[in-house]
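Worked problem 6 (solution included).
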Amino acid sequence: MKNYTRIAEEGRNLRYEEMEDAANRMFSDEVDLAEMTAFLIALAKKGETATEVGALAAVMTSHAIEFNVPAARYLDNCGTGGDGSNSFNISTTSAFVLAGAGVKVAKHGNRKITSAAGSQDALDSLGIHSNFTSDDMARMLQQGGIAFLFAPIVHPKMKRIGEARRKIGKPTIFNLVGPLTNPVPLETQFTGINRPDFLMEYASVLRMLGRERGLVVSGAGGLDEASLAGQNSFVLMDKGDLIPFSLNAEDVGLSYAPLSAIRGGSPEENAEMIRSVLQGERGPRFDTVVFNAGLGLFANGVAGSVKEGIEQATDSILSGNALQKLEAVVAFSEQIGQEAMVR
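Solution. The predicted structure is:
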């Protein structure tokens, strides 16, 4: 491990095989916390490459719990987070809209890190707990076409690495790999990062990981979501090709709104915002959700264009389908809770 740290400290990039070996060492017990911390700091100072991110993502996925689900065109719409915008839970709300439009959604999530309410905090307030086994989550996905995969359960070997990350107290390469480590075999993905300089590299990692189609956004105002507040940068990865483009709200028939219009609050407040959007309450939050869900539909290939995706996302809400998906997951969560009590 010290050799890999020295390479990074010298400003040199690790080859795929080197990063793969370093990652496997971090997931074992053979590397002490001090060595791991030094390595992660050196990587962050050097600047991570697509190859390093891809190798770590592949190893981390291999150490995740197994999911037994039938083959399907699954999508994850989780972003990297860490944008500091304190927006309400856009991707969580969009997940219900995507499922309501017929996409099979396997969404990663965690508790708050930089926001007042992470995805799981808001889900708790909606009545969706996180105490699911892998079989529970697989059943949720098969029965309802949507499942929320709580990161600490999905990645049990991250506990020790988490200690090193907490010691560092600043973003590391693990902040980039989270959305790339879904144990459900994904054909498609819609994800976001708040680093426009790393957009093309991040899309190339989707290609490296074998996604058939993927879309990466870096949003206006530093969001890891598409924003109504200005120009959003994208890279579409389609069958190996990387296609950059940009869009603002007006390009797709939506209206400009400042970031303050989508600010979130406590988990309870965010849960209420999610419900209000899924109940069809119009405004910047509604528009932000249909923008992002529309992009997810485009990434999944259900929609032939972003505008078509937005139309389908709007219909998913106004038809009541998205809200029905929420209620179905809440009911499933209650059922699992009751089953656990009588075991």
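Discussion: Residues 276 and 286 are 9 Å apart (CA to CA).
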